[in-house]
Predict the structure.
Amino acid sequence: MTLDVRSAGSLRAHLGAAAAQLAASTPYSVELVTQDVCWDPGSPRLFQDYRGDLSGRYLDAVDAAVADGHPVDDGKAETILREVLAAQQADGFFGPPALALQVDQGAAWGHGRLLAGLLSARRWAADAAAVDAATALLAEGIGARVPQWLRWVAAAGLQKFRLDPFSAMLPLALHAEASGAKPALVAARTLAEALPADADRAHMHGYLLGLRGQLEVARQTGADDLLRDVRERADVVARRYLLPHGGVTESLTLPWDANTEGCGIADWVMLNLRLYELLDDPRHLDRACVAAFNALLHTQRASGHFGCETLSGEDGVLMSDYAPEAWWCCTFHGLRALRHLVVHAVDADADAVRLHLPMALTATDGDGSPVLSVAGDYPYGDTVELTVGPGFRAAELHVRVPSTAGVGRLLVGGVPMPARAADGWIRLPAPSPGTTVVLELIQHEWFDVGGQPMVPPFANTTLPAPDLATERVAAFRGPLLLAASTADNPPDDVLRGRFLVHPREQRALVQEAGGVRAATSGHDSFAADLALVPLAGPDRSRHDRTVRTWFQGLLYARRTLHD
């Protein structure tokens, strides 16, 4: 059964704020959006050599907004689409002929993003046939240039953007599946098999787009070696480049990059959601949730635009002086990633309707009949309320209990039921239409210590506690990272409170109104209590404030008579 799923609750506000920007004339005038394909020598635009990048992303973002039920300026979107289609050349490419023949990552990147945008635009375009024709011609042109681009990659050395041509792999594979165009799949597989093993210093956004494409090629061709390669590469990213708030650095650079990028974080969310869907491995869903609810939402500003975070010289402290509003890329990709999160939250077939994430949403069937609505404010709230609609035709209702939570109480139609969560799932016979199922979660407090989830006590009665003073430590409640913001704490205390103090006989996090309070210390005699609240949330104006997102270590020791 195919469901039409729409966001609800606080996540809908995040999606809506980004979608509302698409109608704005600043920065998204028709002239600016189309200038990367309708080149005007008298009005140059920064990075216009990435022809098709901005216009393609805009077309895709319109689709994400429409699919989630947000208002868009239909006339503006159609005008942009018509101008893009009119700018296509006979060889399928866009931009001035001299530039269109240029062999570099800008040509590959921009045209790959435009191919993705055209694939999305077909779902809302008034003239779908014209979009289909342009899409096929562009895919053919990209496929013909793959050998040239691979030669460029081989000669590019360790250039940061050397892997960006592999970003065309994903739209090529999706076009092949939608149209049956075998040459597009051949081109995508050629790219998939050529993805270099050494990705050091490469652009994370381009690399993860390549992995997402490689995954689709593996799925369509049954190439187990490619599937295994994607999983192994994703694990390497998680092990080496994943920050405690779930996001990734802007490039695969060690020891660390100077910033994150909303686009790369968005790709990390979407890659892991797809891996979870295909492999049913909850690790990937957990990675996607932590990244989405913390890192990705933290890159969204009060305006609704997404952007980047600056990694300051003080480890664990994030600022917003590096492209906080990257309207030319991150806004579009952030919107698409949040839409992915909504779509992957629930699915259905004849056997069951499965709620993978207990977040607020509505799901209807192909006829528009309500199947399931989910209310509540997870992960900010603990109560989840599911209402079964007349379109619910499956034999059972399955609800996944988040790995960072337990079940406090389960009510079906107001009647208490045993809260058995076999293999992490609550499985119920299909409730009758109109029935309400209430799930009260107990969201756990836990710590990410050097990339490993842990809960106190960190040692048993016979072994000493491990040395945690040199490992990065982040505090969580459920999937939400608890951070110390300068909006709630003196800036000096946020900077100097480098270590989280956890007395062995006490709780590290003390509950108080609006959040929790934790003891911290510095390198010498400094000590201060800091208020910790979720890193990201409905008040997006807070995301501009300097914030300690993780600590440089955890001091875990028994209290003495002298303390």
Remarks:
- The mean pLDDT is 93.
- The longest strand covers residues 405-412.
- The radius of gyration is 24 Å.
- The first helix runs from residue 9 to 21.
